[in-house]
Amino acid sequence: MATFIPFFIALLVTSILYKTVGWWGFLVIFPWIGASISLGRHLQGKLPKGQKDMGRRISILLISPVFLLFLPIFNKENLQLEGIVFLLLVGYFSKGVIHYAIAKVFGPLIWGRGFCGWACWTAAVLDWLPVKKEGRIPDSIKNFRIVPLVISIMLPLMLVFVFSYDVRRDYLYKQEMLWMIAGNAVYYVLGIPLAFWLKDRRAFCKVACPVSLIMKIPASVSLARVKPTKNKCVQCGQCNKNCPMDVDVMGYISQGEKVRDTECILCLECSRVCPVKAI
Ligand code: SF4
Ligand code: SF4
Ligand code: SF4
């Protein structure tokens, strides 16, 4: 039954948004996302031991066309952070703002960084790269994420206030798709080499993604968390070794605590590899 929870949540979100905003696209997007995540959860349960993460990676791959094809074709809005700053600057409440609110600001109050684990279109590519993770990326390098965050916010601000870029005339319905394509291209152009260079598929998430820093704020108080079971942790270290986000899972679980680290993307790898089902 737990497998279907994402699908039920998606149906709830669909009905609320369709009733309030009235756009038919919501009837496609959210059921598709919910069904894909439920399928991934189901596959995680069914696949052989060493291949269970394939279920999540299939989910994230199935969801990516929603953001990379469906929305660009039928909605033509830029969902990247710079686009949201433009929209907020002119007080234009659009579907892009709804996406940001659900996936990156208010949703994470419930499902933490589940979007990063199961629905992000950038990670949909990164997670399939033929890279074998070697060690942890130092925390000092991870702090570098503040630079792209500042750039993503300052760029639209400067264009509007210094170079008099007219958002309503030049951006809305005209250059939004160009910004979306350019923003995504930058993410992939940075994310793919970073994965090979730092030997970590999720290197971009850890050292360069500006959105991750925004999501970490609501994720710090999220409801859904990886938690210990009644079984006792034998401190084998497998969870730490296999966590794609370098979370000190053992530190939390061996103390009987829920994992509060805001880097957790709810991929459930730690639970899968635990030999005593302590997670
Ligand atoms: S950290 Fe950024 S790139 Fe990585 S999964 Fe999350 S939103 Fe996507
Ligand atoms: S703590 Fe567990 S669920 Fe969270 S990212 Fe690490 S392996 Fe995935
Ligand atoms: S994998 Fe399980 S037993 Fe091993 S350290 Fe992690 S929680 Fe403890």
UniProtKB/TrEMBL annotation:
TM annotation in the entry: 7-34, 54-74, 81-103, 109-131, 143-165, 177-198
Keyword terms, alphabetized: 4Fe-4S, Electron transport, Iron, Iron-sulfur, Membrane, Metal-binding, Transmembrane, Transmembrane helix, Transport
Superkingdom classification of source: Bacteria
Residues in 4Fe-4S ferredoxin-type domain copies: 224-253, 256-279
InterPro entries referenced in this protein's UniProt entry, alphabetically: 4Fe4S_Fe-S-bd, 4Fe4S_Fe_S_CS, Electron_Trans/Redox
Name of the protein described by the UniProt record: 4Fe-4S binding protein
Lineage summary: Bacteria, Bacillati, Bacillota, Clostridia, Eubacteriales
